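Cast an eye over this sequence plus tokens and walk me through the fold:

***
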Amino acid sequence: MTDAINTLPTAMAYMFLDVLTDEGITGTGITYGGSLSRVLIEDMLKPVVIGEDPLNSERIWEKMYWASLQYGRRGAAMLAISTVDIAVWDLKGKILKLPVHRLLGGHRDSVPSYVTSVGLQYTNDELVEEVTNYVNSGFKMIKIKLGRKDPIEDLERVKLVRETIGPNVDLALDVNNGWSLHTAMRMAKKLEEYDIYWLEEPILADEIENLAKLARETSIPIAVGENHYGKWEFRQLMEQGSAEVVQADIGKCGGVTEFIKIAAMADAYGLPICPHHTEYIDVALVAAVPNGLFHECVYEFFGPMGQLFVDP
């Protein structure tokens, strides 16, 4: 599995966190932060969480954030906070005997999925076979990876996929921070003829002003958020016009507590929120909010997780 900046291992390590109450109820969180997240949770967050009432999720979140303020706010510390927060909300649902999407507002009871191809390394024949299978499985939107060393190859792959799936299936593109602003502007103009649903992370996530410049220059909606943290950073994205589809990652942005605030902020700006895939967790949150767009399905991750979760 490959994208513009990563070659993922054939086996990925996830960490599951269990938070137990004195009444014997367990809430579960999940992270891909590995051993670093475990150390941060054990040494930094556990001391401020133990003894708290899990129904007081706002209080718990604030205590975790302030405990990590001097060396956190983003990155690994926010992943750790997100993991604990997800477990707290799982606890709340079990204590109150309600699914989390209903605790959060229950806007709807089902959500549509789109599917992501994670094979930037695929040959053209492999890519055609994959997207054909996705269409035959009933998906109405497909996302493919871009960011090859030669941008001409990216254009050829987009043309090939559009011809394969036809005009009635939406096509999104994910560059994974792989282009410069100059390349992104040039490529966006060439991609517009292929009716692209969104262009995801075309340039480095930290270049918020340049994302806004790009958004002004193309008719393709710019989708970002996978590598942004906390409501303050998302406010900056929205204020500057850098995000037209908001893709907060629940496991990175601050967990359920922060995601709901980001979603409400996006709604006030008239923007949809479509979280970066967080296994089964994102389904409930997309269902909870009025501007929830899709659940992202990545088969390489989704299948194995389906063996671990019962009736997600």
Summary: The first strand starts at residue 15 and ends at 20. The two ends are 25 Å apart (CA to CA). The beta strands are 15-20, 26-31, 113-116, 141-145, 170-174, 196-200, 222-224, 245-246, 295-297. The chain has twelve helices and nine strands.
